Amino acid sequence: MSPYLAAVLLALCAAAAQARQPEARWLAEAGSFDDDLSPTQRLRIQQQLAEALTSAALRNRLPPKATAQLQLQWPLRDDGQGRFGYHGISNFVDHDAAFPNRVRDYSCGTRSYDTASGYNHGGTDYFIWPFPWQLMDTGEIAVVAAADGIIVARADGNPDRSCRMGDAPWNAVYVRHADASVAWYGHMKTGSVTARQVGDTVSAGEYLGLVGSSGSSTGPHLHFELHDAAGRVIDPRHGSCNAAADLWSPLQPYEDPAINTLSLHTQPPQAVSCGVDEAGQPVHEQTFETDTLLPGSEFFAFASFRDHRNGDLSRFRILRPDGSEFAYWDLDLADQDQPRPFYAASAWLWRLQLPADAARGTWQYQAEFHGRQLLREFSVGTQSELRRIAVERERAATAGLVRPPPQP
Ligand SMILES: [Zn+2]
């Protein structure tokens, strides 16, 4: 074959590979992770906090007001394994006092919401992604204190998968900081709220509860809201539409595009709406995730993103144990014919097939996005070969007890 013909054939093969269409997609739409504190609910919380802060029991424990500027650190923690990321942001604080449908976030964008009843979103919503209901049920994503302080109120035991807007109370912890500001951590999972009580101190990074969907909430997320000493909402993010100082350290960017997870599945993962089935029973996503595949089997490659924008190219590769390329494709949201040019989160699934003579051993599922290279390893072999690989791995992981692998 002439080198020219070989080059053309290679180019055609590459083009075919790059055109691989997703089998399924999941998009975090506007409203996927919303909340709505009703005016009654908000008033009730503010009264509760005012009473607590002036109560004799708490007054004696509050230190004198400090003048140093508050600094906040990341309010979530991943207690699971194998993920590069686990969150997205659906809504910022709405700085436009008019309503409805008049929203302006700190960066003069519209990533917020208001309601006809006059509620302008007062916090930042950090949702968990992908498979939010499974993540909530397994309790892998914790809410942690963004700054040192004293618990001034707490609530637990409220239902956490109603998915309805209304007057339902949430599970929450309210922490007063040295500068007399108060942080609200809302929507936590039922039964997960810290054992620390009103009047107890908490340190930055300390566990407060698990991300949940209690109260008026359409999906598992943390609603983080900050109030100054006078009880007014503060947006801790500085931008062209918010002159106040930025309190986050490190700074949280307006858009933070990244791949959250790469995984392999034996069947397409299921989507779940509102964490309940048709009979109202609690359910979460069945994911059919695997890290072992049999030669000749069909499988699905999955990738989830946060802050996914048209034109942001991601490249995916599957490599055999010897490093040779088994599959290659790329993804641009712009080619996927979606109604919006930007999603706070997305997830994609591609169907693939291993040949019967697929090389046995450790394969790699690689991705490249925004200059970052990510990889997930998986094993290919027969049942007995996979068992042997698992035993070898377990042995290698046992410190000081690594032995040569058994001879076949
Ligand atoms: Zn919210």
Any descriptors?
29% strand; disordered N terminus; elongated; 408 residues; alpha+beta; 5 helices; binds zinc ion
Describe the protein's architecture and organization.
With 408 residues, the chain is α+β, with helices and mostly antiparallel strands. 14% of the residues lie in helices and 29% in strands. The strands form four sheets. Strands 3, 4, 6, 7, 8, 9, 11 and 12 form an eight-stranded antiparallel β-sheet that branches. The protein has a five-stranded antiparallel β-sheet with strand order 1-19-16-13-14, with no helix packed on it. It is elongated, with a radius of gyration of 24 Å. Bound molecules: zinc ion (ZN). Zinc ion (ZN) binds next to loops.
Low-confidence stretches: 1-17, 402-408
Write out the distinct hetero groups bound to the structure: zinc ion
The averaged pLDDT comes out at 91
What structural category characterises the helix and strand content? alpha+beta
Characterize the largest beta sheet: strand count, sense, and whether it forms a barrel: 8 strands, antiparallel
Summarize the helices and strands and which ones pair or pack.
Elements: H1 3-18, E1 24-27, H2 39-54, H3 56-59, E2 76-78, E3 87-91, E4 124-128, H4 132-138, E5 141-144, E6 149-155, E7 172-176, E8 182-186, E9 201-202, E10 207-210, E11 221-227, E12 233-234, E13 258-265, E14 289-290, E15 292-293, E16 298-309, E17 314-319, E18 325-331, E19 342-353, E20 361-369, E21 372-380, H5 383-397
Parallel strand pairs: 15-21
Antiparallel strand pairs: 1-19, 2-5, 3-4, 4-11, 5-10, 6-7, 6-9, 7-8, 8-11, 11-12, 13-14, 13-16, 16-19, 17-18, 17-20, 20-21
Residues 35, 91, 121, 123, 125, 223 line the site of zinc ion.
